[in-house]
Fold:
Amino acid sequence: MRRSSIVTVSFILALFALQSLSSSAAAGQTAASKASKLLTPAALTAKAPALFKAKFDTTKGVIVVEVHRDWSPFGADRFYNLVNNGFFNGVRFFRVIPGFMAQFGINGNPAVNAAWDKVDLKDDPGGKQSNTRGTISYGNTGRPNSRGTQVFINYGDNSRLDGQGFTPFGMVVEGMDAADMLNAEYGSAPQDRQARIVAEGNKFLIANYPKLDYVKTATVVK
Structure:
């Protein structure tokens, strides 16, 4: 090979390397920006589309949730912002009860939990969709306007919850089989230690409930 050809190939390889480094740096900056935004909930106020899908790549497979903003406008907007900014990445399904529900939504980073702890979500009127199998709703504390970041997927017909402020905002449209396979061996045990989960994040869950399934990544998709 002539020297000029060698120089050309070396230049092209160097150019590709620089482009790769630039892409990695940009991705890192994007991730850092999203993580920073999670610490300032007041900055996450984007209005959700009327209909969108969120893809959850979990340790049991992909689960796709279709969100209907007209079912629960406040709930849909918050969910949209949480997914878009990486809140659910690494989040554990800490309460899984066969025939009832699978609950998740406590961030693995205690600092993020502290930021969202007092940011209650205003109640939606509900009534457009019941808590039937495959629907997803926010948890609450039993008092008005007490929804936060925790959500649950209904495994069965839980319509008895409809009048208690549990307003569905979406439905699993793909991967319900994966949702059904989420590890349920711990039942409600982690839920009973929720204060420690919030305060210590994934460090506590991994040490005490190492077999919990979790969300690897969550993204908004068209």
Summary: The helical segments are 3-38, 73-84, 110-116, 176-180, 194-200, 202-208.
